[in-house]
Write a structure and sequence with these properties.
By secondary structure, the chain is of the alpha/beta class. It has 2 domains: 119 residues, 3-Layer(aba) Sandwich (Rossmann fold), CATH 3.40.50.720; 178 residues, Rossmann fold, CATH 3.40.50. Helices cover 33% and strands 15% of the residues. It has 12 helices and 12 strands. Helix 5 packs across helix 7. The chain is globular and about 60 Å long. The model has no long low-confidence stretch (mean pLDDT 95).
Length: 315
């Protein structure tokens, strides 16, 4: 069996991490992204298994992979990267790694929230540039403030833990309430009520047809003027034009964003030119611990496939 990592492998912390895969067959790791489609095809055309990170396996690329039996996607949003319908038609099994980095993303969200509340980036830049402006950066305490958590999947639930840990009041909305979520003892509210009441809105929804554009202009307009908005989920969930307008006009206090419609972010993106934002380059998931979880789950998924079992399979 030939197992190929075609587009880098941030999940590999050390070479020994690959030993369980080497027991299954030849392992080929490319340490950079393919430069173009032909480059990707050359890397994967004779693979039996692909462990995929950022590249897109479209129908025409899958057509070039005559030996391919299984794709293990490193992450959650496999639909954006793999033509699952075509893979199914070609009898290629697709699996993914759910809940590999919930704590990492939640902790990054907390860091963004603190950075906004205490103007960390602006004050750092001011100090670095030789100015001394302590009176210009009056922050707020988060203790006793209300955080509205949108989405109670694994990341949202971990965010509840962190917010309660610093003394915040938590209100929440989720698409699929169940007994496990009710057991958290949270105040569950309607989505429009959450946006109106929260001092901080933190977005933790999966991106799909039902959620695309769900955070619309009306919801954003209903936020308090001193509220903050944080998105470490997906850009496509949000009316980003409306968000930018509100930030420009000072109708909400600030926003922290880790995800964008186009990545890398174009240099003329309006968010890059606003002072009341904190931006990071889609790194919420990027910790050594999350990477180890990803790789270990992918390995177990592949082993299960070879035993004729399904583990985290999507087709």
């Amino acid at each position: 069996m030939k197992i190929v990592f075609p587009d880098g492998a941030a999940c590999i912390n050390r070479d020994s991490d690959l030993e369980p895969l080497r027991e299954l067959g030849e392992v080929v790791v490319y340490d950079n992204l393919p430069t173009e489609k032909s480059d990707l095809i050359e890397r994967v055309c004779d693979a039996d298994a692909i462990i995929l990170d950022y590249s897109r396996l479209t129908a025409d690329i899958l057509a070039e992979c005559g030996r391919l039996k299984v794709v293990c996607f490193l992450g959650i949003g496999y639909k954006d990267y793999i033509d699952v319908e075509e893979a199914t038609r070609r009898n290629i099994s697709v699996n993914y790694t759910p809940d590999y980095g919930s704590t990492s993303v939640a902790e990054h969200t907390l860091a963004l929230m603190l950075a906004l509340a205490r103007h960390l980036l602006r004050s750092y830049n001011s100090t670095r540039e030789g100015r001394w402006e302590p009176s210009s950066f009056k922050g707020i305490e988060l203790k006793a403030k209300t955080i509205g958590i949108v989405g109670l999947g694994p990341i949202g639930i971990d965010m509840v833990r962190l917010a309660l840990g610093i003394g915040m009041k938590v209100i929440a909305w989720t698409r699929s309430p169940d007994d496990r979520r009710r057991a958290l003892g949270l105040e569950m509210v309607k989505l429009d009520e959450l946006f109106m009441k929260a001092d901080v809105v933190s977005l933790h929804l999966a991106h799909n047809r039902e959620t695309e554009g769900m955070i619309d202009r009306e919801l954003l307009n209903s936020m308090k003027k001193d509220a903050m908005f944080i998105n470490t989920a997906r850009a496509a969930l949000v009316d980003n034009e409306a968000l930018i307008e509100l930030l420009r006009e000072g109708k909400i206090a600030g926003a922290a964003v880790d995800v964008f419609e186009t990545e890398p972010v174009p240099t003329d993106h309006p968010l890059l030119h606003l002072e009341n934002v904190v931006l990071t380059p889609h790194i919420g998931f990027n910790t050594s611990e999350a990477g180890s979880n990803q790789l270990n789950m992918a390995i177990e998924n592949l082993k299960a496939y070879l035993r004729g079992k399904k583990r985290n399979a999507v087709n």
